[in-house]
Amino acid sequence: MVASATKTKIAQELEDAWVALFRAPPAVVERVNARIRSEGFLTVEWYDVLWALARAPAGRIRQRDLGKDLLIARYNLSRLIDRLAAEGLVERVPCPADARGFDVVLTDKGRDLRAATWPVYAQALREEIGSRLSTDEQCKLSRLLAKLV
Fold first, then answer.
1. Which residue of 8, 44, 92, 148 sits 20 to 30 Å from the alpha carbon of 127, by its own alpha carbon?
2. In what order do the strands lie in the sheet with 60-62?
């Protein structure tokens, strides 16, 4: 009987963790997105691509490799890059190392817009995470989630 009760408790704790892992991120991202959009800026997805490019050497990365550096889902990346390019925030240029491939390059306009968006994004993160978790809790959460990556 004792083993069964322990097993049930462990299973319930594991299930609760699993459910929270799925529910929390979309809810937080939705609220952060709403805040950023309400200020007239980019979505989190657009910002994420510009941020990855800003961190890349010379603001440039192979399109096929860009997905590895993103926080967002990659299934619509090609269309997202099309939209960013249409807005003049990125450019697709031939890859010098592979004539069949393309690099995505951050434009000055994209760099400026990413920089202008960051203060609003940072404030939204402070409101959505910083106001709900102590600094110690934020560190613990980061360490715990890193173990799952």
1. 148
2. 60-62, 98-106, 90-95
**CATH number for 8:** 1.10.10.10
- Phi, psi dihedral angles at 96 (to 5 degrees): -65, -25
* Residues in CB range of 138: below 8 A, 6 or more apart: 129, 130
pTM confidence score? 0.81
pLDDT, tens digit, 9 for 90 and up, residues 57-94? 888 999 888 888 787 777 788 899 999 999 999 999 99
* Closest by CA position to 46, among listed 16, 76, 68: 76
* pLDDT on residue 76: 85
Query: How far, in Å, CA of 87 to CA of 15, rounded?
Result: 43
Mean pLDDT of 14-27: 91
The domain in which residue 132 lies consists of 2-148
Report the pLDDT value the prediction gives residue 7, as an integer from 0 to 100: 63
| Count of the separate structural domains present in the chain | 1
